[in-house]
Amino acid sequence: MGEFIMNCDAAIFDLDGTILDSLWVWEDISKDFLSKKGKDIPVTYIQELCSKSFQEAAEYTIRLFMLSETSQEVISEWNRLALIEYKHNIKLKKYCLPYLQYLKEKGKKLAIATSLPRILCDSCLISNGIYDMFDVIRSTDEIGRGKNFPDIFEKISDELKVPLSRTLFFDDSLSALVTAKKLGMKVVGVYDKYYASDKTEIIKVADGYIESWENVWNLL
To answer: What is the rounded radius of gyration, in angstroms, for the C-alpha atoms of the chain?
Structure first.
């Protein structure tokens, strides 16, 4: 595993729950949004959202809670509630930045594969001072399907001009890691409490697993 990290040409990172300490925002937003409609949130709801594009997540929410809103109305409300948090309050996970800087110093290409709309993604990367570190930033909203499909990974690979077999992928979501692994990437699971129930399965699938970005150096 360590040898591949040193020899890889690119690394792709998820945002929510991987390099950003942010999934709490979606729990708060979901509670605010759905409590006004008298709905309770299932335990696995946030997990389900994070593997989908915003369009898929909105359609899933409408079906699950039998809402009368259109998907665009749901997305607009989510964006309104989330923008302030992503622009001003959400920070990188502790110890993540030194690793990103290390990869850049080693000449590796860096990319983002996120389910966030670009307005949230870009605002947060800019506010944390790391927007310019990434060679490619792609949202599943731009692609049209979530990370349980290969599309976003193939698009990023084409734009980086790096084969997926020479690319490392970091994510906290089991479904995204499974997809990436099937595409020939080396994958590293990143602990987040919202995916704690998947930890055992993630460890089985992944080439490496870190409880904290402080531990990533153990993989080298």
So the answer is: 17
